[in-house]
Design a protein that fits this description.
With 200 residues, the protein is an alpha/beta fold. It has seven helices and six strands. Strand 5 and strand 6 form a beta hairpin.
């Protein structure tokens, strides 16, 4: 049995202004540092068997702060990066509509499969993230409960939860995850997942 503890990174200046921040490698702002420390304190009594993080600065710094509790090696995993928003990176939705109106129409017509210029489609990002998580769960099956901490991004956490609960990519829209929010899922050895905490 595996327990996944998913933590979204703390706030960045891009988050605070409402911009699409995918592979743009920004660090935590002052509020983000505080949020990460709060998550660390919430998790201080956990026994963690492994720590995995997106390599992007905002996630890895959050992982470093939380890992002060555990002192484990943090494994950088490219598959845990946020969706690559390509030419939409670091733009607000209004700015995207103004600068890329034709692309927005194509996205609205097929948000699952539309690949942003220079970036990824929603389904490509969904499959990338869940390919890693499914392999991680499979490799940690066994009688002993294994607790794994994953520090990643909003879109990734929504994708992981939707996938493990059998909702498919459409289920991603049904979850809200705050900066440094903690989400927990337990996956039994038959692969059945239980959501035990959302955005704690």
């Amino acid at each position: 049995m595996v327990e996944l503890i998913l933590v979204r990174h703390g706030e960045t200046d891009s988050n605070s202004k409402g911009a699409y921040c995918g592979w743009t490698d920004v660090g935590l702002n002052e509020q983000g540092e505080k949020q990460a420390k709060n998550a660390r304190d919430k998790l201080k009594d956990e026994k963690i068997d492994g720590v995995f993080s997106s390599p992007l600065k905002r996630a890895f710094r959050t992982a470093e702060i939380i890992n002060e509790n555990f002192g484990l090696e943090i494994k950088r995993v490219d598959a845990l990066k946020e969706r690559n928003f390509g030419v939409w990176e670091d733009l607000k939705y209004k700015e995207i509509c103004e600068k890329h109106p034709e692309e927005v129409k194509l996205w609205e017509a097929d948000w699952v499969n539309y690949c942003i210029k220079g970036g990824e489609s929603a389904v490509q990002a969904f499959n990338r993230v869940n390919g890693f998580v499914d392999t991680l769960i499979e490799s940690n099956k066994g009688a002993k409960l294994t607790k794994l901490l994953i520090v990643t991004h909003l879109g990734c956490i929504k994708s992981i939860v939707a996938n493990l609960l059998g909702m498919g990519i459409e289920g991603c829209w049904r979850f809200k995850v705050d900066n440094a929010g903690i989400t927990r899922l337990v996956v039994n050895d038959e692969g059945y997942a239980y959501l035990t905490m959302l955005n704690g």
